[in-house]
Hints:
Number of helices: 2
Order of helices and strands: EEEEEEEHEEEEEEEEEEEHEEEEE
Helix content: under 10%
Radius of gyration: 23 Å
Number of domains: 1
Number of strands: 23
Largest sheet: 19 strands, antiparallel
Strand content: over 45%
Structural class: mainly beta
Amino acid sequence: MASSKFNKTQVGLQTDIGTAVAPTIQVPWRGTYEHAQEMHMAEYDAGTWTPTSIEANVGEETVVKWEGTVIFEMIPVLLNSGLADVSPSGTYIHTYVVSPAAVGVPKPLTALFGTVGTNIGGTGPAVKLKDLFLRTLTLSANVNDKILAVSAEFFGSTLDDNSGAGFAFETVGLPATLEVIEVLKGVFRYQDAAATGGDFATMTDFECSIIDAELTLETGIEPAFCLTDETTSWSALKYTSPSCQLALTVRTNATNYAAIKGKSNARTFQELQWFIAGTSGHDLDIRMTGVWDAVPSVHDDQDGEVVMKATFVCKTPYTQTTTPHWLSIINESTHNWT
């Protein structure tokens, strides 16, 4: 097992698991990749002076972690490999829906990772990882930083260093237009959930100023392992229950606090929208159905300020019988990721 930092990454969107593709775009984040290869040594007594053992590679998997600033154009690079894949409309709008009624079909990534100027061998500085799927996504915001930050963990199948010679980076770059997501431009809206899900039409503004916000999404996808040639590898996905919650620390007024506290106490299912607008052609719209899991007293203190702390957990009410809703994310930018 080995872990390496990288400072250049290029990725491409695969069609099928197992078939690597050439990169089509760079990503602007740094992080680590890990070859989570598992070796097993079985010792036995062969009647010799020195120990005798049998060794086998019993597991192949890779892990990638990205951290950085969220950019509108890069949101689809993350979500196409964790949620249902979509074909963006002509206005560069990507829509991702985690439906209670059906499992999504994400597409994996092929990625080249490496440090510029540090060659593995005669060919190039990069290693190739394929079949990368999003396992966990965390979007976090803070009033001091004023931007939306991302931490994303992917799992993949195998690492290939081209027999120690490495792979050369290709001549692909970032999208022509890039815009950082400024979280202080975001607004929250809420309403009670009806029998028909995904309405989000007549919302009430949640008047507040964000101190901290953290959205944590577990996609619920894992590798489905099978045994081939002494190595436990995988070529398919298994689906478990996803989870998503939004933890907020905000300054707000008594009216909004009372409304949210009342819904929390009554265990009333609601729809919550977090909408962040950018310049023309840029916005991020996160829509959640669920309940307020914890709303402590409004007279809480953080960094010398009186704040309200609340957690919204995605859940679908059993009474939502028409187009039941759990989570959807709509991203508009100036770049298509297909």
